[in-house]
Design goal:
single chain, Alpha-Beta Plaits, five-stranded antiparallel sheet
């Protein structure tokens, strides 16, 4: 089970924000260098802790699923940045020879159908630095892992106690591990 503090300290929040800003810069640099869309993969980890053994395992399972799907679809990875040691959690950024809309469709298939997909966050940014959203493709927003309502609404309103969100995160992971044995 993961153990989290419930409220990020200002220092941790600042480190996470800094890491996210650096991710945006890496994405833009890859797009500028290769003139190809990018796929960014991170984990939706609730609470202050964004990096621990379980989160890294979830990341590796997701990265493996992404790489398998890209290989199956014959999508060439031109460049990749991966780090498992960032304050904002593990991340991978891929520069890919594929249409951005097709990449979003593929990412949604993993987020929607992989047993850990609710914990994955896969973003696609096109060659003009525009994020491709679920709504661009007619999909509803992501569902809350506690109540299945709109995740953004639950997060903004802090509808659920962080311990309930963490318990749901852990349950999804534990169920996956049990089903894999």
């Amino acid at each position: 089970m993961c153990h989290y503090n419930t409220k990020p300290t200002e220092k941790i929040a600042s480190m996470i924000l800094d890491a996210r800003e650096k991710r945006a810069l890496r994405q833009a640099e890859l797009i500028e260098k290769y003139h190809l869309p990018v796929m960014s993969f991170t984990i939706n980890a609730p609470g202050e802790t964004k990096n621990n053994e379980i989160i890294n395992k979830i990341f590796l399972f997701g990265r493996e699923a992404l790489l398998s799907l890209l290989n199956l679809e014959n999508i060439k990875i031109v460049a990749e940045f991966t780090s498992e040691a960032l304050p904002s959690g593990p991340e991978a950024i891929f520069s890919l020879e594929a249409d951005a809309i097709r990449l979003k469709e593929l990412s949604l298939s993993i987020e929607e159908h992989h047993p850990l997909g609710r914990l994955f966050d896969i973003d696609i940014i096109d060659c003009d630095l525009n994020p491709i959203s679920r709504k661009n493709l007619g999909y509803e927003g992501r569902k809350c892992i506690v109540c299945n309502n709109d995740a953004k609404v639950c997060a903004r309103s802090q509808r659920h106690d962080i311990s309930d969100v963490i318990a749901s995160f852990n349950r999804i992971y534990d169920d996956y591990i049990r089903s894999s044995c």
